[in-house]
Model the fold of this input.
Amino acid sequence: MTNRWFKDAGIHPLIGYVLAMAAFVGISAYLFYKTPYAVYVYPLLALSLAGKLSELKRNDFLSQCFPKRKLNQLRITENVLAVLPFVFFLCYKQYFLFACVLPLFASLLAFARFRTTANITIPTPFAKKPFEFIVGFRNSFYLFLLTYAVSLIACFVGNFNLGLFALMISFGVCLFFYVKPEHEYFVWSYKLDGRQFLLRKIATALLHVSVIVLPIVLLLGCFFYHDIGMLLLFLAIGYAFLIYMIVAKYAAYPSEMSLMQTILLAVCIAMPLFLIVLIPYFFCVPQNI
Done:
């Protein structure tokens, strides 16, 4: 499946794997560089990835294809392979205890079965448009609660960098709201030309993401008022990344974002100033909308 995705993107699978590994290493190194709490966050990210494989319907299907013993072996192998890149990087950073414990927890997680989506309707502070924030917020609300908790901890322990980390994680979750292209009907319903449509999407997205990050910004602004300039800078960077996701998504519409656009996003994480060039470029690309 991964090979087919690379081929559809026009990239040889071998080159695609090399680029994906380089992006993984770069993002991992950046996370450890930015916060001393990365050693705790990193294993949780790995387990959340492995947890996606425990989805109930997926495991019900596998149980019909394999006997129980074979299924358990398959699921353990899947989970260990999913966290293996994280284990290697933890070993590289000399966190050997976390590197040893992570595969053990991943193996135990293989016996779990749970739904990755809830059947309850969660109220949101957003209007009916755009649908991205309604669906995204309901699927990820617990992550925002986690970032709010981390920002509170940052204030109690006097760690401004930890608060900035919580802020950027909130923005990072919102970026994933714009990964998948929607049905053409939801674009056609705006009855606007390409640039008017993009401006409308950007304005609404900035408004809605502000509702999400406002509690963190106010909290950090009150407790770390002497660092208000740095806080506003990171807020602007978060807005810039969200704008990039929107213009890049609709530059490729109705297809998904290309691998090159994803790689450019990874480059921008290390060099945010690159967004000054990429945002106008993708905004001016002829839109198929």
Summary: The first helix runs from residue 2 to 8.
